[in-house]
């Protein structure tokens, strides 16, 4: 009441009259009076709207059913599918905690945006087949009423994988699997290759596989923003902050084999607020670890891997940062519009970037060459020594290329088998993973988000059985044997 009287007084009382009738004074004069008036009101109304101390909108809520750590493409995809599949609508509260809203170091925005069907493990083909449907019909999934349609700049183009004599039999088997799963991929002899792509030097190539549909590349930033816009419209909450701690309770249990294990449940997530020492606890029922290259560190915060070596409790989430360079070059004599996404037997890759004879590409370093992941500086010698020679050997026109720019990003690298980790942890029973995809997490995010949401809501995978991607394989030693890791 007091506040209302004062506010009305501003218009009609002496203060208000002073404002309304002032004539002829300078702007400085008037501004000075305004600030005096504000100060006076502020002293009477310490809880007034303009008092920033009382603005708490940047804080996370006190509780949320699901807390997703990481707002990259995987975290947002999980958020999307949780809201899409929840029954009844509005049943669950979902909070996404992201520490860097500029995404300056996130893998998603530093990737090269490729999607392919050419994997060797059926689950990977299935994931990418669903994802391509999602991407090609993006507005059926991510449209927001009254907003313009989303354009992710999808560029359809086949991947062209080249195999040496040594890799030819594996390639043939891979293509069998791809076709069984419904992907349209053809095998090409070196001669067929020369006829279709006359700019390729086929020396050292025994066989090639070429995707005839459902492959290409798109703008990862557009997908990220589209997902963000959509999940906000579905009621997902966002918080800018870093998850620094989990509060959990534990129960000692005995497994069937007699091993004693500590089952843990996370009750609270502590979020350190951006640019401050303050943290906020958020009560929760489920935590999704979608922290990308940092998800190994987030798992450690939950005590994962803090047990005797060789036990389930001592098994870490083997996901770490691995720095990868991408170089962008110009070459007026280079191949044209028909350039596919080429993967050389040496591991070097390239694709067209736009229509102006620009290309981008790179290659993964060997274990011994792994650069220090402490920063995202680019090593230009790596291009000269490791990338350019195989490029120029495969495409002689690239002898004359000129590098225009370059960047580095982090692979969310799974050191165990370079494949995704999906589903709950066997001991920290309410932490779920959506991470570790190494070089193919962007393209699989739409399908992985759905798989994690199915697990959270139904307790099992419904559409694609991803049991072989569970955390438990790190303990049992069963690797996902994917031949086409790039
Ligand atoms: C050079 C390069 C090329 C690539 N090319 C392709 C490609 O062609 N096709 C493809 O499918 N994939 C590609 N990838 C891989 C792909 O980019 C990743 O697998 C995918 O983007 C991972 O998504 P994400 O959401 O898990 O990770 P991110 O995008 O890294 O998001 C994770 C987020 O978690 C946040 N975070 C971390 N810790 C915390 C914390 N404690 N609290 C709060 N927030 C936290 C981070 O700030 C980050 O924004 C490429 C990657 C690189 C680096």
From TrEMBL:
Give every FAD dependent oxidoreductase domain span: 65-455
Q: Which GO terms fall under molecular function for this chain's record? A: oxidoreductase activity
Cofactor requirements of the protein: FAD
Give the UniProt entry's GO cellular component terms: mitochondrial inner membrane
* Cellular location(s): Mitochondrion inner membrane
Q: Which PANTHER family does this UniProt record tie to the protein?
A: FAD-DEPENDENT OXIDOREDUCTASE DOMAIN-CONTAINING PROTEIN 1, SARCOSINE DEHYDROGENASE-RELATED
The protein depicted here goes by the name: FAD-dependent oxidoreductase domain-containing protein 1
- Which organism does this sequence originate in? Puma concolor (Mountain lion)
């Amino acid at each position: 009441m007091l506040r209302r009287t004062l506010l009305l007084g501003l218009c009609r009382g002496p203060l208000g009259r002073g404002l309304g009738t002032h004539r002829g004074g300078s702007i400085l004069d008037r501004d000075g009076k305004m600030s005096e008036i504000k100060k006076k009101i502020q002293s009477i109304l310490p809880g007034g709207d303009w008092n920033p101390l009382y603005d708490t909108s940047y804080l996370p809520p006190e509780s949320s059913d699901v807390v997703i750590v990481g707002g990259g493409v995987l975290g947002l995809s999980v958020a999307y599918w949780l809201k899409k599949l929840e029954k009844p609508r509005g049943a669950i509260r979902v909070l996404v905690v992201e520490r860097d809203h500029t995404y300056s170091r996130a893998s998603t925005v530093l990737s090269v945006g490729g999607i392919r069907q050419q994997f060797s493990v059926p689950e990977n083909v299935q994931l990418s087949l669903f994802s391509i449907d999602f991407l090609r019909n993006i507005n059926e999934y991510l449209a927001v009423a009254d907003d313009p349609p989303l354009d992710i700049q999808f560029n359809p183009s086949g991947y062209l994988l080249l195999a040496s004599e040594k890799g030819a039999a594996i390639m043939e088997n891979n293509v069998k699997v791809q076709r069984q799963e419904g992907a349209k991929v053809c095998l090409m002899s070196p001669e067929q290759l020369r006829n279709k792509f006359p700019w390729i030097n086929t020396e050292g190539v025994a066989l090639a596989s070429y995707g005839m549909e459902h492959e290409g590349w798109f703008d990862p930033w557009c997908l990220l923003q589209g997902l963000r816009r959509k999940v906000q419209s579905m009621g997902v909450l966002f918080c800018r902050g870093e998850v620094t701690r989990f509060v959990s309770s534990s129960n000692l249990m005995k497994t069937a084999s007699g091993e004693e294990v500590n089952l843990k449940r996370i009750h609270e997530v502590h979020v350190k607020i951006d640019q401050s020492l303050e943290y906020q606890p958020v009560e929760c029922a489920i935590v999704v670890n979608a922290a990308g290259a940092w998800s190994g560190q987030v798992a450690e915060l939950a005590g994962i891997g803090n047990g005797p070596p060789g036990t389930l409790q001592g098994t870490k989430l083997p996901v770490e940062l691995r720095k990868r360079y991408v170089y962008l070059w110009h070459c007026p004599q280079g191949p044209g519009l028909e350039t596919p996404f080429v993967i050389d037997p040496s591991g070097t890759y390239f694709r067209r970037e736009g229509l102006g004879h620009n290309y981008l590409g790179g290659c993964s370093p060997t274990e011994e060459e792994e650069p220090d992941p402490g920063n995202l500086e680019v090593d230009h010698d790596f291009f000269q020594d490791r990338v350019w020679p195989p490029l120029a050997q495969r495409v002689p026109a690239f002898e004359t290329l000129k590098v225009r720019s370059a960047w580095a990003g982090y692979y969310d690298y799974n050191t165990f088998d370079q494949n995704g980790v999906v589903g709950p942890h066997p001991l920290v029973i309410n932490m779920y993973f959506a991470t570790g995809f190494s070089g193919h997490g962007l393209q699989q995010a739409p399908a992985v988000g759905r798989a994690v949401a199915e697990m959270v809501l139904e307790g099992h995978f419904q559409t694609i059985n991803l049991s072989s991607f569970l955390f438990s394989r790190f303990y049992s030693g069963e690797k996902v044997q994917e031949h086409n890791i790039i």
